[in-house]
Specification:
six-stranded mixed sheet, globular, binds 2'-monophosphoadenosine-5'-diphosphate, single chain, six-stranded parallel sheet
């Protein structure tokens, strides 16, 4: 009988994670014997948990807030994205029994745009990225990989944006919100990575930028997917920008992990998207 592969998502708390829904959908779709479940670990427990995956019968799993940096430090090997981003969201044990860590957020960000707007990176190569947290690092890595030449990072705390510019190099320019409006005109792609407009976190009446002067054909995308149409996207859409919501990033970032643990590269289908959307709308 085939070995039963078991994978997980761990965080603190973890009960709101949609990853079990995504991976169990794929397990069923591909007729695989395996399991994927949410396992809560406190920051104190996480190192022991991560170092004893094999003993627990686990092939690997996803790591979310607040363990992504701890996971990075614990891994014996890391992929290039994890090294550049400084955080690990996917763990697997390799053939030599070593704990490997990857970061699939940058992949998920670009793959979602590739799927929704295949020419998103084929025009000009200037981007405006709003926010300088962990998600912003993944977005910057993805944009640099796709050949973006100039990326303005706007953040309330300018020092955090400057730290990203220092880390990723001279193509990144740090700025404060007082300068943000001036950069809208030159951007080919505008990305919101802030929690402004996210349900339960940063409800805002209006997003603090006017997109009416944006370039024709400019792309706007949010990494937040609750609500699906954030105030940022609603305003960008109103101004005629080509908009991509953040739900696809969640779905696409799950693909490489599933392939590591279960040996099949899964497809992000409309049916999967609809299923997660239904669950999001229930909450
Ligand atoms: P993540 O890992 O999802 O990126 P994070 O590290 O907490 O989360 O980052 C949240 C981002 O939203 C930051 O860029 C934050 O700005 P600061 O670095 O100045 O805190 C931004 N953000 C959150 N609330 C905001 C607000 N009310 N106005 C402007 N920016 C805000």
């Amino acid at each position: 009988m085939a070995e039963m592969k078991q994978a997980f998502v761990t965080g603190f708390p973890i009960k709101h994670s949609r990853s079990p829904l995504i991976h169990n959908y794929w397990l069923q779709r591909y007729g695989l014997t395996g399991s994927y479940k949410a396992i809560e670990n406190s920051p104190e427990n996480f190192p022991h948990f991560a170092k004893t995956l094999a003993e627990q019968g686990l092939s690997g799993g996803n790591v979310t807030i607040p363990h992504k940096e701890a996971a990075f430090a614990l891994c014996e090997k890391r992929d290039a994205a994890a090294e550049a981003i400084g955080a690990v969201n996917t763990l697997w044990i390799d053939a030599k029994n070593k704990l490997n860590g990857g970061n699939t957020d940058a992949y998920g960000f670009a793959a979602n745009l590739d799927a929704q707007l295949p020419d998103w990176d084929k025009g000009g190569k200037t981007a405006l990225v709003l926010g300088a947290g962990g998600a912003s690092r993944a977005v910057l890595y993805a944009l640099l990989n796709r050949g973006f030449e100039k990326i303005i990072v706007v953040n309330r705390t300018v020092e955090r944006a400057q730290a990203l510019a220092d880390h990723f190099g001279s193509k990144i320019l740090a700025a404060g919100w007082d300068q943000a409006q001036g950069f809208v005109r030159s951007a080919d792609v505008i990305v919101n990575t802030t929690s402004l407009g996210m349900s339960g976190h940063g409800e805002v009446e209006a997003f603090p930028l006017d997109f009416s002067e944006a370039k024709t054909g400019a792309v706007a995308t949010d990494i937040v997917y609750i609500p699906l149409e954030t105030p940022f996207l609603a305003q960008a859409r109103q101004a005629g920008l080509r908009c991509v919501d953040g739900l696809g990033m969640l779905l696409h970032q799950a693909v490489p992990g599933f392939e590591h643990w279960f040996g099949v590269r899964p497809e992000v289908t409309d049916e999967l998207r609809q299923m997660i959307l239904n669950d999001v709308q229930k909450s």
